[in-house]
Fold:
Amino acid sequence: MSAPSPSAGRGGFQSRIGFILAAAGSAIGLGNIWRFPYTAGENGGGAFIALYLLCVLALGVPVMLAELAMGRATRKNPVGAYTKLGGRPWAAAGGLGVVTGFGILAFYSVVAGWTLGYLWHAVTGTFARAMDAEASTALFAGLISDPVWAIVLAGAFLGLTMVVVRAGVGGGIEMASKILMPIFFVLLVALAIRSVTLPGAGKGLAFIFEADFSKIRAPVVAAAMGQAMFSLSLGMGAMITYGSYFPRDENLVVAGVSVAFFDTLIALLGGFLVFPALFAAGMEPTAGPGLVFVVMPTIFDNLPMGQLFAVAFYALLAIAALTSTISLLEVVVSYFVDERGWSRSFAVYVVGGACFLLAVPSALSQGGAPALTDFLGTGKGWLDWQSILFGTYSLVAGALLTCILVGWRWGTDAAREAIEEGGHRLPAAPLWGSLVRYVCPLAVVGILIYVVTTGASF
Ligand code: PFF
Structure:
């Protein structure tokens, strides 16, 4: 294994596999098991999933390589990386990433808090008895609409994240990812197999595989693009930051493509886990953010050692969320450490504390405070809005800026050299160049203009 490239004591990943697991830890999270199924459910199922896969291939993978190259070439946080490659005005693009990371963390930690609440229920045996759709819905509503619990759980999750980030990127995250990610995968496969073999699961499979392309309109395309960016942790500089810790002589293409591959596999498995169980229990796929939490408890009591499965499932979901929140906080913290000269601890306390304040309205928006539940009469809650603005549109805009910087300012030739550093060839380099220069920017601009000018509803 090669040594990390030292760079002003910033630290680094110890090996390619360590990097892949940490970056996969960032990518694989609630986005795969929680957000992907409900977003697919709200946007028509199979057609959305097909579109999503296209977005991962045509937009996700090229942007992933671009972000990693930006990070490794500059060894800097997003603001530093954009500025170094593009000049002073580009600092704003990195700044958008930092703000977006902060905005995502503020709602993500609320949902991550729910996983802790469900872990508690699993440990205390709530799912050991049979749970139908109604009982499960009531349990979920009870948990998330309790203002004290919602805030305490989000705070606890942010606290956990702060502890890890304060300790630095080092061996801890790498080690934990190496042990936990494989276990997570095995459990997910086992649960998905149970789900697809439930009586009545066929409708769920049909929902995944039957692609009704007439349902695809501009907001659905934007949602698919945003979900691809969100799930792959792109568009806000997380991969720039992680790329800045990536060894110089390692193969960046293999690493980036592996992360995208595993992330997509896990999202699809998330779909195979949720939709068959959902239809088997007679529920609606359009239930929104509560989907996974409501569906999963209906299958645990159908399993041998169901309680153990339930505990393991929510523990691992919480851990998957934690490896993602770490990367979100790391982006913001690395900015204050690199660019503002703050100490890591101080940055963690200030950013974590401020994020908690922004998490409060999200935590209260799930029934705890009616004004936030139906925010400004939009029919959507504060949490949903935060997810749409930061978790979809900001990320898509961020991906666009990355493409413009790498494709037109830094230049694809120079970027390609950075990707190939260490003597590892970028296959289909001209295709990658065209995707970054033309296809991705045009697709993103086209969709953004369409959504804005038609005022298409979300
Ligand atoms: N990719 C994470 C998930 O799918 O849950 C969420 C996320 C983490 C988004 C880090 C963006 C990011 F920078």
